Amino acid sequence: MRILLTGGCGFIGSAVVRHIIGATGHTVLNVDCMTYAASPETVAEVASSDRYNFAEVDITDGPALAKLFAEFRPDAVMHLAAESHVDRSIDGPGVFIQTNVVGTYTLLEAARGYWQKLDEAARTAFRFHHISTDEVFGALELDDPPFTETTPYDPRSPYSASKAASDHLVRAWYHTYGLPTFVTNTTNNYGIWHFPEKLIPLVTINAIEGKELPVYGKGENVRDWLFVEDHAEALVKAVEVGEPGETYAIGARQPRTNLEVVKTICAVLDELKPDPAGPRERLIRFVTDRPGHDFKYEIDPTHAENALGWKAKHNFETGIRRTIQWYLDNRDWWEAIRARRYTGERLGQAKK
């Protein structure tokens, strides 16, 4: 397959790119506008492959997208490009609407224009795979059953609302125009190359440096954690066998409270790199909860596992240990990001 993938220099997107080049025979065009959260280093190990291509293009630029479709001639689209940090969406929701809603609409229209010109066999085989989040389903109470593909939408933050809107657009383009789209929703991802503003890398790096470990509220909020390389494998399986109009909820059955996550990071780091000042749990600080903080997310992945022939390989303990070791071994990467102080500058990368 020839796959046009958006957001391939981000955390999840880069894992998908590495999986495509390393474990399949597919060819990929990585379309990324290189915002503050993009890192060229995340795909450096595969960038020399003759099956890897890159274009620095914003998904809100319709003419540029149309040109990419015409030149690359993809068999499928994997749409991962998105603004995804909840705290940033609370502080400045506009960019989330622009990228996640307007960008998805623009990409859908570019794909539809290209798809309509294909011959019948190519139109039938074409897929538009939209990657989304479980946050569109709202929040669970402690004893509620996990989200499934049929859970009603109930977004609570500007981020999740923008993703919900994009999901609805993708399904509308299927029902109205026949564009063969489908959606995957996933729970919280973690792993290597995770941008340092998110919970697990933030806590890991602070703990390495002996800094305070901020935890919202009492740390009782629950998330279901999926190792990013397991998710990447599931996403590629989905674009290979996914059916138009379908939804696949992808998870790992690994729920943990935020406090449990932080304490696990402390324990693993204390083992791998002991702190002479003492156990790192001493660094935990409870801070004022953020507005609209959803209590619990968890996914039942049964349908996706059966339909895709996939199951997560990592449990949380093995995945977090590998992740923490990676951050210990790759200080140069996250120290350089911290030095930029998240100024929001775009990062340049040579086109291939």
UniProtKB/TrEMBL annotation:
Q: Name one Pfam family in it.
A: GDP_Man_Dehyd
Tell me if Lyase is a UniProt keyword of this record: yes
The keyword Lyase appears for this protein? yes
All residue ranges annotated as the NAD(P)-binding domain in the record: 4-323
Q: Which reaction does it catalyse?
A: dTDP-alpha-D-glucose = dTDP-4-dehydro-6-deoxy-alpha-D-glucose + H2O
InterPro entries, A to Z: dTDP_Gluc_deHydtase, NAD(P)-bd_dom, NAD(P)-bd_dom_sf
**Keyword entries, A-Z:** Lyase, NAD
Q: Which family does it belong to?
A: Belongs to the NAD(P)-dependent epimerase/dehydratase family. dTDP-glucose dehydratase subfamily.
Q: What is this protein called?
A: dTDP-glucose 4,6-dehydratase
Q: Its gene?
A: rfbB
